[in-house]
């Protein structure tokens, strides 16, 4: 489904307001506070992209990779936290923890923190707002393109020295775009920025600077195609099973497939099935229900060129 930023933003903001005000003695006053935060910090989100200053500005080890606020020492004391495009609000129950967080954040370049005088989440909480003041927003509410691209390139290039494989766009786009996101945009970056990020990543990968390219996600294929791949492999495995061997191999479309099957409850109602080709070149798993001749499976993972042989 297409990612519709205004619709998603509205849903995120309503959820944030509800979460931060539903338990207050004066929810209307709390709502006004959250609306001010949205105006200041941008739309409510679920997770920052890895290159966001909120994650990268606090001091860290050169080998450390961060994907969440909880991994950062400067943010100790987080409790009941809502993230926004430019920063976050957190609501610890300890005033001492709140003051400690403000002091720790204000010692970090490009970050600012302050206490709110009005309660959020609970009348007994001490809300703290943390913002990356160098994050500027476009008219559509996303981060200014030149800044987002610069931060993304800087972080990605810095990780080349310790990389063992090159991750494809489809494997790591949620870490690049933040969440929620679509195929090339999110509440952090618009389609223009996201498209350039993908081109830059693919150019870096093709240069060999990260090592061999690792394909895993098959999200570039439609859900219908992913289901068809999984069903083809699982159904063929079931057809070739002698009902005694827990694992065996079979050939399909020129590929040697390793299968593992078992009667889940030993009543012939459900068969657990796994099929793998190569060393994780393609992997599918799911269940077959003999009485209904039906298959359910999770999305297959592996290399696109190989997976498409089973469509």
Fold topology:
Elements: H1 5-21, H2 27-41, E1 44-45, H3 53-56, E2 82-84, E3 87-90, H4 95-106, E4 111-115, E5 128-132, H5 145-158, E6 166-167, H6 169-177, H7 191-207, E7 213-214, H8 223-240, E8 247-252, E9 255-263, E10 271-277, E11 282-289, E12 294-297, E13 301-302, H9 304-307
Parallel strand pairs: 6-7
Antiparallel strand pairs: 1-2, 2-3, 3-5, 4-5, 8-9, 9-10, 10-11, 11-12, 11-13
Helix pairs in contact: 1-2, 5-7, 6-7
| Principal-axis shape | globular
Count of discrete domains: 3
**Content of β-strand:** 15-25%
Mean pLDDT value: 95
Number of strands: 13
The profile of the biggest β sheet is: 6 strands, antiparallel
Number of helices: 9
Write down the secondary-structure element order.
HHEHEEHEEHEHHEHEEEEEEH
Give the assembly state of these chains.
Answer: single chain
Separation of the first and last Cα atoms: 21 Å
Structural class of the helices, strands and pairings?
alpha+beta
| Poorly predicted parts | none
- Report the radius of gyration as a whole number of Å: 24 Å
- Helix fraction, binned, reads 25-40%
Describe the structure.
With 311 residues, the chain is of the alpha+beta class. It has three domains: 5-132, no CATH class; 145-214, no CATH class; 223-310, no CATH class. 35% of the residues lie in helices and 19% in strands. The protein contains nine helices and 13 strands. The chain has helices at 5-21, 27-41, 53-56, 95-106, 145-158, 169-177, 191-207, 223-240, 304-307, and strands at 44-45, 82-84, 87-90, 111-115, 128-132, 166-167, 213-214, 247-252, 255-263, 271-277, 282-289, 294-297, 301-302. The strands form three sheets. Strands 8, 9, 10, 11, 12 and 13 form a six-stranded antiparallel beta sheet that branches. A five-stranded antiparallel beta sheet has the order 1-2-3-5-4, with helices on both faces. Strands 6-7 form a two-stranded parallel ribbon. A hairpin with a 4-residue loop joins strand 11 and strand 12. The longest helix is centred in the last third of the chain and has 18 residues, at 223-240. It is globular and about 70 Å long.
């Amino acid at each position: 489904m297409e990612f519709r930023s205004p619709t998603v933003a509205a849903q995120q903001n309503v959820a944030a307001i509800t979460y931060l005000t539903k338990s207050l003695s004066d929810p209307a006053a709390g709502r006004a506070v959250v609306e001010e935060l949205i105006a200041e910090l941008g739309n409510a989100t679920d997770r920052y992209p890895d290159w966001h200053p909120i994650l990268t500005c606090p001091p860290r080890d050169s080998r450390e990779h961060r994907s969440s606020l909880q991994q950062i020492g400067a943010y100790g004391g987080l409790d009941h936290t809502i993230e926004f495009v430019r920063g976050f609000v957190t609501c610890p129950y300890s005033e001492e923890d709140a003051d400690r967080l403000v002091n720790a954040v204000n010692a970090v370049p490009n970050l600012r923190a302050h206490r709110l005088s009005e309660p959020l989440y609970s009348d007994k909480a001490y809300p703290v707002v943390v913002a990356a003041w160098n994050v500027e927003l476009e008219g559509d509410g996303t981060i200014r393109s030149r800044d987002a691209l610069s931060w993304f390139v800087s972080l990605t290039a810095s990780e080349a020295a310790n990389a063992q494989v090159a991750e494809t766009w489809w494997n790591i786009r949620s870490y690049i775009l933040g969440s929620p996101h679509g195929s090339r945009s999110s509440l952090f970056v618009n389609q223009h920025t996201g498209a350039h990020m993908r081109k830059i990543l693919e150019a870096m990968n093709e240069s060999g600077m990260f090592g061999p390219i690792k394909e895993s996600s098959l999200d570039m294929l439609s859900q219908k195609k992913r289901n068809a791949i999984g069903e083809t492999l699982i159904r063929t495995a079931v057809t070739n099973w002698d009902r005694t061997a827990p694992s065996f191999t079979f050939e399909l479309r020129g590929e040697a497939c390793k299968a593992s099957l078992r009667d889940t409850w030993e009543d012939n109602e459900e068969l657990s099935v796994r099929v793998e080709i190569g060393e994780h070149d393609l992997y599918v798993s799911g269940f077959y229900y003999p009485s209904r001749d039906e298959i359910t499976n999770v999305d297959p993972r592996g290399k696109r060129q190989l997976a498409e042989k089973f469509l």
